[in-house]
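Figure 3 (text version): C-alpha cells given as input.
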C-alpha cells in the first residue's frame, strides 16, 4: 500500500481555512449549526436538519480508484471506477473550493477492537455534519482504547462542491470517491450525511478480509450468558427493532467485524430510521430523539417544533443520529464473544416463506449472498404488487469485493464457531401483501426468543420442499398453523404458484454470481425450480 502523509493533507486544509474548529464538542457544534441556519432546535433540544435534494445515498455517484491494489480485487460490476489522475484532480479542486471557508475537524476512531482499528479524521465546512459523524463514530477517551498503530483515514467533505464529470471522470456534480490505497475519501455535491458513515464502512469492507476479519452489515447484541447474536436484514425487516432488546445489551446496530477473537462494533453511534417512530413501539430510540446533540435528518417538525415522525412529505428515509451510549442497555466496550446465533431477517411480501427456518452453513451462505426482502405496493411510485429486492451480503452498495469473498468467510466462521443460522420472516402470511396479513410482532418475538435461547435444538422439524431448510413444527406460544405458510392460504394452488414465482426470482438473482457458485449453493432451491 502506498505510504501517504495524511497529517500533511489535514494541516494544509486547516492552514487554508478561514478558521478551524478542532474536535469541537456537542454544544459548540449545535450552536454553530443554529447560528449559520443549517439546523434548528426541536422542542426537546435535538438538532433538526434538511439535506435538500438528496435524502438518501447516491450509489451511482460512488467510485473507487482503480489502481494496482484494487484492480484485481474489486467487484467492478458493482462499483464505479475512477482513474488515479482524476481522483488527484478532484482532490486539488476540492482543496481550492474549501480555501477561505470555516472548517471543522473531527478526529475519531472506527473499530472497537484496537487490533482492527482505523483513525478517522473528517474535515468539513459544515458543523452539523461534524456533529453527525462525532455521534456515529467512536469518540476518543470514552471507554474504548485507541491503538497507536490504527490505520489512518482522511475524509474530505465538501457538500456544496460541484464535480465536473468531464474533468473528474464521474457521472454528475455529485461524487463520492474512495482511494483504497491511500485511505482517502472525497465527498462532494450532497448534504446527505449517511455518505460519510458508509464511506468508512466501505473502506473497512475492502481491507478487513485481508486481515482475517469478516465485515458485516448487521446489528448485534449479547445474551444473558454473554453469547453474541447477529441480525442481518435490509430496511423494513425489523433489524433495529428486534436487536434493541432491554434484556440483551446492544453491541451495535449496523456495522461489525468478526475476527478470531469475536465480534466488535465499527461505530460508536446509531443511525436509526424514524418513520412512524413511537414511544410505545420503540421507547429507547424515541427517547434518543429527544436529547441534546441528536441529529434529526429530514424529519418534519410541527408548529410547536415537535417531530412529526408520521409525516413523510420530505422522504420516508428520515433518520436520527445519536451516540450508542444514550441507550439504556448496551455492551460496554462495543465488543462481544464468538456469535452463537446468526439471524437473517426478511419481510417476504409474497407470503411464501415460513416465519422461522433453521439453515445449514451452505444454506446460510445462499441466503447471505441473496440478501432477500420485498418491497410492498405503495412504498414507491409505480409499485402495485410485491417486488423482490436482493442485496448481496445484505449491503451490496458497501461491499467492494466480490460477495463470494464475504460468503466464504461467513461459512468458515459458522463452521469454526458452531453458530446456528436462522431465517426469520417478518413479512406476510395467509397471502401476499394486500390479501394476507403481516406476521404479528408477538409471534415474531417468541420465535426469535426460541431461536436465541437454544430451545429449538431438539424440536420436530419438517423440510421445506422448495428451499430445503428445516422448519419447526411447533413452538410454544405460536399458532402451529403459522409455521406452515401453505396452510395459512385459503387456496393452496395459489400459494404454489406464488411460491414458484419467488423461487424463480431467487434463481434468476443468483445467476449473477456465476455458474460455479450457482451449482454449489442452495441445491434444494435450484432443483425445486427446474
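Below: residues designed for each position.
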Amino acid at each position: 500500500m502506498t505510504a501517504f502523509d495524511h497529517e500533511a493533507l489535514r494541516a494544509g486544509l486547516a492552514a487554508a481555512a478561514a478558521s478551524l474548529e478542532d474536535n469541537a464538542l456537542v454544544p459548540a457544534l449545535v450552536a454553530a449549526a443554529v447560528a449559520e441556519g443549517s439546523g434548528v432546535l426541536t422542542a426537546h433540544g435535538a438538532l433538526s436538519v434538511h439535506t435538500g435534494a438528496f435524502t438518501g445515498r447516491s450509489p451511482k455517484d460512488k467510485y473507487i480508484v482503480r489502481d494496482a491494489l484494487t484492480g484485481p480485487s474489486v467487484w467492478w460490476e458493482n462499483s464505479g471506477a475512477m482513474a488515479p489522475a482524476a481522483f488527484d484532480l478532484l482532490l486539488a479542486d476540492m482543496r481550492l473550493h474549501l480555501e477561505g471557508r470555516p472548517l471543522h475537524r473531527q478526529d475519531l476512531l472506527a473499530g472497537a477492537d484496537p487490533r482492527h482499528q482505523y483513525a478517522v479524521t473528517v474535515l468539513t465546512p459544515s458543523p452539523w455534519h461534524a456533529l453527525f459523524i462525532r455521534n456515529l463514530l467512536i469518540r476518543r477517551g470514552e471507554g474504548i482504547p485507541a491503538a497507536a498503530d490504527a490505520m489512518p483515514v482522511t475524509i474530505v467533505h465538501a457538500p456544496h462542491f460541484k464535480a465536473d464529470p468531464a474533468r473528474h471522470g464521474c457521472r454528475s456534480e455529485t461524487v463520492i470517491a474512495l482511494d483504497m490505497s491511500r485511505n482517502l475519501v472525497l465527498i462532494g455535491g450532497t448534504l446527505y450525511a449517511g455518505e460519510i458513515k458508509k464511506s468508512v464502512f466501505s473502506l473497512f469492507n475492502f481491507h478487513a478480509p485481508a486481515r482475517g476479519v469478516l465485515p458485516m452489515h448487521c446489528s448485534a447484541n449479547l445474551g444473558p450468558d454473554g453469547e453474541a447474536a447477529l441480525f442481518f436484514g435490509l430496511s423494513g425487516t425489523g433489524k433495529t427493532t428486534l436487536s434493541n432488546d432491554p434484556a440483551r445489551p446492544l453491541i451495535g446496530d449496523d456495522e461489525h467485524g468478526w475476527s478470531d477473537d469475536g465480534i466488535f462494533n465499527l461505530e460508536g453511534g446509531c443511525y436509526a430510521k424514524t418513520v412512524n417512530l413511537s414511544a410505545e413501539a420503540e421507547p429507547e430510540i424515541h427517547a434518543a430523539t429527544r436529547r441534546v446533540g441528536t441529529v434529526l435528518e429530514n424529519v418534519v417538525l410541527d408548529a410547536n417544533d415537535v417531530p412529526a415522525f408520521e409525516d413523510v412529505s420530505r422522504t420516508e428515509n428520515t433518520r436520527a443520529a445519536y451516540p450508542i451510549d444514550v441507550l439504556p442497555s448496551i455492551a460496554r466496550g462495543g465488543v462481544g464473544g464468538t456469535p452463537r446465533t446468526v439471524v437473517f431477517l426478511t419481510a417476504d411480501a409474497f407470503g411464501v416463506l415460513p416465519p422461522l427456518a433453521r439453515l445449514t452453513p451452505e444454506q446460510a451462505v445462499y441466503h447471505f449472498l441473496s440478501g432477500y426482502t420485498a418491497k410492498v405496493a405503495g412504498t414507491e411510485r409505480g409499485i402495485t404488487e410485491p417486488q423482490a429486492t436482493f442485496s448481496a451480503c445484505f449491503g451490496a452498495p458497501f461491499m467492494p469485493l466480490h460477495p463470494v469473498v464475504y460468503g466464504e468467510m461467513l461459512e468458515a466462521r459458522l463452521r469454526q464457531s458452531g453458530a446456528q443460522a436462522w431465517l426469520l420472516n417478518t413479512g406476510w402470511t395467509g397471502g401476499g401483501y394486500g390479501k394476507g396479513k403481516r406476521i404479528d410482532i408477538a409471534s415474531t418475538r417468541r420465535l426469535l426468543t426460541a431461536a436465541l435461547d437454544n430451545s429449538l435444538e431438539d424440536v420436530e422439524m419438517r423440510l421445506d420442499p422448495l428451499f430445503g431448510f428445516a422448519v419447526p413444527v411447533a413452538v410454544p406460544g405460536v399458532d402451529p398453523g403459522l409455521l406452515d405458510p401453505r396452510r395459512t392460504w385459503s387456496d393452496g394452488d395459489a400459494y404454489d404458484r406464488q411460491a414458484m414465482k419467488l423461487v424463480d426470482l431467487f434463481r434468476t438473482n443468483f445467476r449473477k454470481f456465476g455458474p460455479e457458485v450457482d451449482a454449489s449453493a442452495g441445491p434444494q432451491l435450484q432443483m425445486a425450480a427446474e
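The CA atoms of residues 262 and 471 lie 28 Å apart.
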